[in-house]
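Subject: Interface between my chains keeps coming out wrong

I've been trying for a while to get a sensible model of this assembly. When I model each chain on its own everything looks fine, but I need the whole thing in one frame so I can look at the contacts. Pasting all components below, labels as-is. Any help appreciated, I'm running out of ideas.
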Amino acid sequence: MGGSTGCWVSETLRSSIGKKGLMAVTGLMLFGFVVIHLLGNLQVYLPDKQALTQYGHLIKSKPAVLWGARLSLLAIVLVHAAAAILLAMENSAARPVKYHVRQWREAGYAARTMIISGPLILAYVVYHLLHFTTGHAHPDFNPDDVYRNVIVGFQNKAVALTYIVAMVMLATHLSHGLWSLCQTLGFNHPKYTPALRFASIAVATAIGAGYISIPVSVMLGILK
Amino acid sequence: MKLILHIWRQRGPNDAGKMVSYDVPDASPEMSFLEMLDVLNERLIEKGEEPVAFDHDCREGICGMCGIVINGIPHGPRPATTTCQLHMRTFNDGDQIFLEPWRAKAFPVVRDLVVDRSAFDRVISAGGFVSVNTGSAPEANSVPVAKKDADLAMDAAQCIGCGACVAACPNASAMLFTSAKVSHLGILPQGRPEAATRVQKMVSQMDAEGFGNCTNTRECEAACPKSIGVEFIARMNREYLCAALTDRPEAEGGGGV
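Reply #2:
Try treating it as a single job with all components included. I did that and got this:
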């Protein structure tokens, strides 16, 4: 294929569909992380205020598992980002002269801004790690009291607002990404695609709402 | 109808090109879009100016030659309609209309609104042959084709290769075109023997031509004058990824096992 003599794996992965496939598979994995992370965070609502902190201790109790998961996530993010950069550069090169007038009929806001929402979410994740994982960006960080870190962290309105904006971006990204990854991996059929497109938006909205509820609850004094 | 047209004028492939405005004071709602341009061109010729170059052939929506981005939409505002089948009654008196060529690196502008779409021909020829016997007509039931397969293959085969999908795509991707060409053969039993190599070669050629990548925005589907759906893109993704895993190259002296 293509006159090259490389192995079939690299040839497949370097093709347009291969790079899209990498985006889709890593995107699905990151979606899995986002769901598990949300379920972990929602323990903040449990009547036992130590539940979230105990969950934090549980995660950190096996350093090999913790670092295995962290490095795997890092690798997944790097592949997702690298594929995105390569694809975006090719896309931009594919239309050197832009249109004077452009009308969109199907492409929604989420679909057209994936390449913007993605890096912004990544930038937020870096800040988020400095805020709640290492504590460098936290005013009063206590590694042994996860619950209190959350409450204190979100009592700052600017911090809470940044979090809410980031989660809206995450939900926007997922609302297109979930359906899009199915399409890229070849799942499209009149039997289920309309439901899939609806579910993509519904699930993204639910995830965004779940995350956003936490700083809102802190600011309203429901969590304290 | 009084119209103001803003048309992309470019003398040749290496000219920078620019938008030029023209008044059309006497368009009739019954004219087709291309007839309206014919009227403008006759007037330009009378004045000794260079007429606007645009592609067209059958003018009945089946050849795939015409194609102008009209007010930011390939083939204009009517769904499932080629530029030649668009009529001026779609517009209002006093409208300003922007006319631009298909914009893609793989479709270089030849002149004004004419682009070179031979990249599409190379994608098709990269697909290679289909195992169909020539000679007298075969017995109709020797290769059974289920009605639903025939229908689906015909849906894909409707592609006239106009390139509106590329023009509409925010990334100038040719996935809808290539997927239609891959599918209309791949769905039929006659096209199955070469399906795995066909999809790999056509995608490889599509990439080599410098088209962009699909971001599943579905703009192509909305612009396609033949209403070809992105379901065929998913079908091609499926076929390509499966072919990468299962296709084996031809080996010297045996099956390579």
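Reply #3:
Confirming on my end. The radius of gyration of chain B is 21 Å.
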